[in-house]
Amino acid sequence: MFRILKGDYGGQILIAIVIAACALVPYLNLYVPASSPFHLSTFTVTLLGKYLTYALLALSVDLVWGYLGILSLGHGAFFALGGYAMGMYLMRQIGDRGVYGNPELPDFMVFLNWDALPWFWQGFDMFWFAMLMVLFVPGLLAYVFGYLAFRSRVTGVYLSIITQALTYALLLAFFRNEMGFGGNNGLTDFKDILGFNLQSDATRIGLFIASGIALILGYLSCRAIVASRLGRVAMAVRDSEDRVRFIGYRVDKVKLAIFTFSAVLAGVAGALYVPQVGIINPGEFSPLNSIELVIWVAVGGRGTLYGAALGAIVVNYAKTYLTGALPEVWLFALGSLFVLVTLYLPQGIVGLMRRRQKEIGHETA
Amino acid sequence: MKQLDTLREIMRPDEVFPFVHSQKGLEPITDRGVILSLEGVNKSFDGFKAINDLNMAIDAGELRCIIGPNGAGKTTMMDIITGKTVPDTGRVRFGQTMNLLGMSEPEIAQAGIGRKFQKPTVFECLTVAENLELAMHGDKSVWATFRATLSGEQQDHLDKVLTTIGLQEGAKGQAGSLSHGQKQWLEIGMLLMQRPHVLLVDEPAAGMTHQEMDKTTELLNALAGDHTVVVVEHDMDFVRSIARRVTVLHQGHVLAEGTMDDVQQDQRVIEVYLGE
C-alpha cells in the first residue's frame, strides 16, 4: 500500500484527511454536546458522507477521463444503478411497515395492483445479494456497452454522445411505472439497513465511516492501476491510441477493463449515497448529473485522482451553500465555473496549486 | 471466372493453408531467405488505385529503401503489411508460411513486425525509459500488464537499447521534451524493444539536421543484419547513404529495383521521379 502511494503527496494528504475525518466527525457529533460550537449536527454528518460518495464517483470518472481519455458523459448511470440496487434492498427491509402494510410487496407495487414480486426483485431481501448486484449490474452494463463501443473503435466526441444517450435512455426507462422500479417517485421511505435504524445518529455515523473507507479503498485501487504498467498503457492510449495498437496492445481490452472497473466504483458510490440521502429516483440518471460530475473533475484537476475527489467536495460544498443562499444563481455559477476552468485552469485547482508551488520555489531559489 | 481464379489460387504449388500451420506464436520461417513478400496486391480507395499489382520480396537481414513520388502508395503498402488496411486482392506473407492478411494489428506487432510512423509519435507524458518499457516484448494482456514488473534481464535489454539509440542520459526525462531527432531515435528504440524481425521505418530523416541524419544512418546500418529494415524515404542523399537495394514505387506498382546507381540510371525512374 505504501509503495502505491510513493511520491503521490496529494493522495497521501487526501487519505490522511479522510482518516482524520472518520475519527473526528463521530466524536464531534456524538460526544460534543449540542450546545458547544464544535458540535456537528447529524445533518452535517450526512452531508459530509454524501460528499465522500461524490468524491468516489469523481474518482471513477477521473480514472477513465483523466487517464484513459474517455470523456464519459454517462457515468451518472452507473452511480444510479448501484443506488437502485441498494434502494431495492432497503425497500425489501421495510417489510410490512409500509403505508399499505403489505409484507410481500413494496408500496408502489401495491398501488399499481401488482400481485407478486417481479423476478428481478427476487433475492434483494438478502444484503449480500444486493451488494453483489451493486457491483454486478453497473459492471455488466459497462462491459456490454464498452465491448460494443471499443471494438468498433468509437472514440472522442462520438463516444461521449453515446454515453450521454445511454444515461438518457435509462432515465426514460426508469420513469416508466411498468419497469417496476417505482417510476417517477423512485424508491424511498427506507426504514433500516442490516437491522439498524436509518434515522439514528449511530447509523448515520456508520454510513459516513463506510463512505470514508470506500473512498480510501477506491483511491488505493485506482492508484494501483495508475501506477502500474497498465496505467502507463492507459495514458499512452489517451495520447496516441493507434501507436499503442502497433506496439502490440489490445487497446479495446485495456479500455474495456478500466471502463468496467470504473463503472463498478461508480456503482459502489451510488450504493453508499442512497441510504444517506434516503431516496433514489430516475432523476439520478439525468444527463445533467453526469455533466455536472465531469465539471467536478475538471475543477479539481483531471488526471491526478486526488484532484477529482477535491473537486467533487469543493463544487458540492459550493452547491449546498449557493442553492441555500442564492438558489437562482447556482446553475449560472456552475456554467461559468466550467467556462472559467476550461479557459484559465486547464489543470484545475491542482494545477493552480502546482503552479503556485513552482513560483514560490523560484522565488526562494 | 471468379471460380477459376479461386481454383488457380488453391492449386498453386506454394500454397500454404492456414490449417497446416498454426499461425500464432510461431517464428517466421525464412529458410529461403525471404522474410516478407507481397504478391499481386491491389487496393483501391473509392476507385483510386493506391496499390496496383504490387509484387515485392524482402530478404531477411536486408536494409531496403523504398522511394517514390507522393501518392506512389508507400504508406498504403506499410498499412497493408501492418494490418491497418486490408487489400482487395493479393497475398502478404511473413516468412514462408505466415499469412498477414487476416491478422489484427496487435497480432502482427506481436509476430515481429514493428512500425515507425512518419510523424514521431512517442508517448510524450511518459519518460523515455517508460516509453521503451511499454514497447517491450512480452505478454501484453490486460492482467499481465497490470501485474508487470521489470526483471533484471528486461532491464538489461532496456539499457542496451538506450545505449544503442544514444539516450541513456535522459532516460528519466519526459519524452515530450526531447528534440525532434531524439524522438525519432526513441521511436526506433521502441521498435527494438519489441524484438522484431522486421522494422518498417517511415521517413526517418524528415526534419532532421545533418548531424542527426548522420547518426540515424549509422543507427539503421547497425540494425540491419540482425533485423530486416525497410525504410521509406524521400530524401535522396539519405537514401544514397544507407541503401544497398532500392525499390522505386510508382502509382502503386514497382517501377524499378536494384542498387542506387542502377535505379538512378533507369530511364523510367528518371522520368517519373528523379528527372523532376
Automatic annotation (TrEMBL), chain A:
Main location: membrane
The keyword Transmembrane helix appears for this protein: yes
Transmembrane residue ranges: 12-32, 38-57, 64-86, 127-150, 157-175, 205-226, 256-274, 294-317, 329-346
Keyword Acetylation on entry: no
PROSITE patterns listed in its UniProt record: PROKAR_LIPOPROTEIN
GO CC annotations, alphabetized: plasma membrane
InterPro entries, per database record: ABC_transp_permease, ABC_transptr_urea_perm_UrtC, LivM-like
MF (Gene Ontology): branched-chain amino acid transmembrane transporter activity
Membrane topology value: Multi-pass membrane protein
Location(s) in or outside the cell: Cell inner membrane
Keywords: Cell membrane, Membrane, Transmembrane, Transmembrane helix
Cited CDD domains: TM_PBP1_LivM_like
A Pfam match: BPD_transp_2
Protein name (Swiss-Prot/TrEMBL): Urea ABC transporter permease subunit UrtC
Gene: urtC
TrEMBL record, chain B:
Domain ABC transporter: from-to ranges: 36-276
Example GO molecular function: ATP binding
Alphabetic keyword roster: ATP-binding, Nucleotide-binding, Transport
Superkingdom of the source species: Bacteria
Pfam families: ABC_tran, BCA_ABC_TP_C
InterPro entries the record matches: AAA+_ATPase (IPR003593), ABC_AA/LPS_Transport (IPR051120), ABC_transporter-like_ATP-bd (IPR003439), ABC_transptr_urea_ATP-bd_UrtD (IPR017781), BCA_ABC_TP_C (IPR032823), P-loop_NTPase (IPR027417)
Gene Ontology CC entries for this record: plasma membrane
Protein name (Swiss-Prot/TrEMBL): Urea ABC transporter ATP-binding protein UrtD
Species of origin: Leucothrix pacifica
